[in-house]
Every structure is written in structure tokens, then in C-alpha cells.
Write a structure and sequence with these properties.
The chain has 249 residues and is of the alpha+beta class. It has two domains: 196 residues, Butyryl-CoA Dehydrogenase, subunit A, domain 3, CATH 1.20.140; 38 residues. Strands 3-2-1-5-4 form a five-stranded antiparallel beta sheet. Helix 1 runs antiparallel to helix 3 and helix 4 runs antiparallel to helix 5. The longest helix is centred in the last third of the chain and has 45 residues. It is rod-shaped, with a radius of gyration of 41 Å.
Length: 249
């Protein structure tokens, strides 16, 4: 029983797109603080689309002290991710790279898919390294007790970030498969064009207009000269015959 890896990659890619889209609306990170009496005194949630939020009102000063600063990804990147995700969905659902006869169009879809994988990788790697850890937000999770404040802090990533990790693993194989197919097409097309060009060059003379005109003029002159020389030859022949006849007499 043979496995159609292309179909498997395609199904995984679609699942990865769905998870990636859902992750934008889910929570990516939690920061929670609970005191010894079991009361929640700190609670912050990060969402890639809606930024940091808290269920507490603005009057909860202790909660506001622990509000993460400079730990938000640019919203423009998130919007670009959503747009590229829809373009990738269109390419995988309505376009087959192996049947595409428009190489330029195929290259564009390949660029879109690679851009999607790059953005997912950006979320998975750059988000914790440049937005969480520099702001004291532990990754992937941590629980510790502050004896001075008598508060237990919980740091953990949310389902949205987990979905991004899974999305990267599901979208990467199909994007790599597409890229390898397009690279093969480009090599074959380039090889075919080079072969045809070499063949044409070997059997065709270079088009030189001046050379063609000179050749035509030479042929015309040769024809005219031959036409002029024919009567002269006939005259000489008659004259020679006359001399021969006269000598006999």
C-alpha cells in the first residue's frame, strides 16, 4: 500500500491553517497571582489580536503594577498573518502546483506559503524571546511563591500559542514540498530552453541583412554577366566557322 505524501501534506496544511486562524482569537499567555486566602489579585491575559487584557477594573492598583509593558507584538504583523493565511488557503484549495502551467502564478503562491511559514515561525520563536522573557514573563510556564507578598504567581502559555506551534509543524512540510516542485519545474524549463536555443543556434545562420543584400546583388550580377556572355560566345563561334569556311575555299 503506497502512501500519497502529497495528499497527507495537503490535509495537514489545511489543518494547520485552521489552527493558525483560530490561534489569533485565543489566549496566548497567562499571568495570574493568587494570595494565601485564595483570592486572585493579579490576572493578565495576552491575545495576539486584542493585546493584554484583565478582568479587573482600573482601580485594582496591585494588578496594574504587574501589567506587562512592551510585551505586545505589532498588530500590523498579526493582520498581515491573517491576510497571508487566507491567500494560502485559496492556493491550496483551488490551485494545484503540479498542474499549473503559469509558472509566475505558481511562484507567487509559493512565496505566499513560505511567508506564512515564516510568520508562524516568527510567532513561535520571536514572541517568547523578544516579548516575554525580557519582561520577566517566564516561558513556557512557571509557578513560584513570593514570600514577601504572600502571593503565588502562575506564568503559562495559552492554547493560542500551542496552536501556533502545531500550525508550524503542519504547514512546513507542504510549503517545503511546493517549493521543491517549483524548483524542479524551473530547472526543467531552463534546461529545455537551453537545449532548444543551442539547437536553433547550431542549424541557423545569424541573420545579417547587409550580407543577404550583398549576396543577392552578387547573384544578380552573375546572372547578368552570364546573359551578356552568351551572345558573345555565339558571335565568336560564327566568326570561327566563317574563317574555317574561307580557308577551305
Amino acid at each position: 500500500m503506497s502512501i500519497n505524501f502529497k495528499s497527507v501534506y495537503k490535509v495537514l496544511f489545511v489543518i494547520g491553517l485552521v489552527l493558525g486562524f483560530a490561534s489569533v482569537f485565543l489566549d496566548w499567555y497567562y499571568l495570574q497571582g493568587i494570595n494565601d486566602s485564595g483570592e486572585t489579585v493579579v490576572y493578565w491575559i495576552y491575545n495576539a489580536l486584542f493585546d493584554w487584557s484583565t478582568p479587573f477594573s482600573t482601580g485594582a492598583l496591585f494588578n496594574e503594577v504587574y501589567q506587562p509593558k512592551n510585551a505586545t507584538m505589532p498588530i500590523a504583523i498579526v493582520i498581515a498573518f491573517i491576510i497571508i493565511l487566507f491567500l494560502s488557503a485559496y492556493s491550496v484549495l483551488f490551485h494545484d502546483v503540479e498542474r499549473g502551467d503559469n509558472l509566475l502564478k505558481v511562484r507567487r503562491f509559493n512565496f505566499v506559503n513560505l511567508s506564512l511559514v515564516t510568520l508562524v515561525g516568527f510567532f513561535v520563536l520571536i514572541f517568547p524571546l523578544f516579548f516575554l522573557l525580557p519582561n520577566g514573563l517566564y516561558y513556557p510556564f512557571l509557578l513560584y511563591y513570593d514570600y514577601e507578598l504572600e502571593v503565588t504567581f502562575y506564568f503559562s502559555i495559552g492554547p493560542g500559542y500551542f496552536f501556533q506551534i502545531i500550525s508550524f509543524g503542519f504547514t512546513f512540510p507542504y510549503a517545503l514540498f511546493n517549493h521543491s516542485i517549483i524548483t524542479t519545474f524551473e530547472k526543467e524549463q531552463s534546461s529545455a530552453e537551453n537545449t532548444i536555443n543551442r539547437y536553433i543556434k547550431s542549424v541557423r545562420e545569424e541573420l545579417d541583412l547587409d550580407k543577404l543584400i550583398a549576396r543577392e546583388e552578387y547573384d544578380l550580377e552573375s546572372t547578368n554577366n552570364s546573359q551578356i556572355e552568351v551572345p558573345k560566345s555565339e558571335v565568336e563561334k560564327i566568326y570561327n566557322e566563317f574563317l574555317t569556311t574561307r580557308g577551305r575555299k
